[in-house]
Amino acid sequence: MKPINFVSADEAVSHIxxxxxxxxxxxxxxxHCLIQALCRxxxxxxxxxxxxxxFHTEGPAPYSEERYEGIFFDQGFFLGPNVRKNxxxxxxDYLPVHLGETPLLYRRRAIDLGAALVNVSLPDENxxxxxxxxxxxxxxAIEYARIVIxxxxxxxxxxxxxxxxxDKFDYLVHDDAPLVTAGFVEPTPVExxxxxxxxxxxEDGDCLQMGIGALPNALTGELGGHKNLGLHTEMFADGLLKxxxxxxxxxxxxxxxxxxVVSSFLxxxxxxxxxxxxxxxxxxxxxxYTNNPFVIAQNPHMKAINxxxxxxxxxxxCADSIGMRLFSGTGGQxxxxxxxxxxxxGKSITAFASRSAKGHSKITxxxxxGAGVVTPRSDAxxxxxxxxxxxxxxxxxxxxxxxxxxxxxxxxxxxxxRAAFERFGPHYHNFEx
Length: 433
Hints:
The chain is an alpha/beta fold. It has 2 domains: 9-174, Glutaconate Coenzyme A-transferase; 189-430, Glutaconate Coenzyme A-transferase. 27% of the residues lie in helices and 19% in strands. The protein contains 14 helices and 24 strands. The chain has an 8-stranded mixed beta sheet with strand order 15-13-11-10-16-21-23-24, sandwiched between helices. The longest helix has 15 residues, at 410-424.
């Protein structure tokens, strides 16, 4: 392998022209040294009108801030806490898209990408680097950007699935900043009840998809007695890692990628990042693969578990906004809902607490004005709260209302029942489910 010729971060980003669209690798593996260098260019008046695209990012997000208005404009594919306030204030923006379709935005040149900025691992003996904890849509970005800048960081694990040859990079920068980590979130008593209700829908040999946080941790805490589970997901963290290390998740029954853990990005502890390093049993893949419903459906008994902000009485699922206020994004929810629903013996499951932190019912007569429908009522199947689980598949709107009210908070059921009666008319009470 030829020696690597590094340049400084300032030198690398000096080649990005104004009016460019710029891709950032995301989540725990954001190339912060390049972002800081771009901020120095901006402060010097040397660049303007850069548009940034990325998944949710951890750490500072100056590219979304008011002070760079007119110089930087963030148009992320998913909102994290670091950009949420600025997006809702109008200094940054959200680009609605299913995460599995983000690579196509670059490959079809719906976004004409000027530069790709990505964190990568140390190269192997053949001159290939890994995108580590965040493959996401970076493979497509590297393929189609006019300028590709790689940050070689020894903290980025070498993960298999999508390896990149060094000759794909126009400029290489060295950085040794540790990746952002996230600790294990302990579930509340309510979340533990939800986890038990979800676990009752999971059988030995199933293939799982779920996100990160207290609720997925509650579910994984209930699956320790299961056998031969698989994992095909867009992301995973410490809760699922415990099941992998215990042998509960071994992928033995998967029909594709048998025996492999398949994911596209990670956010967790250093233990998670170390686990995937040079581990042939883990494949970190392009999100166009992981989130493709037709790929997902090839594994039988797929169980996709996602959450919601609110669900109306007909089964419309809002997961990206609180009324008009953008909160997260479409993500991969509908892709996994449809993939699980197409899978032989599969189930899509939407799980959430019956009430919000402020005590409002999350099962509602109608969605809040401006709320985004991430999963249409026609795709909604299993819905789970701490009060039980109901299957909406094959049920009419009036039947769905009865079922959903049965798992709402007991103090909210009378008001919801009255709202259903007002919506559906006097024959509503004749329905029994």
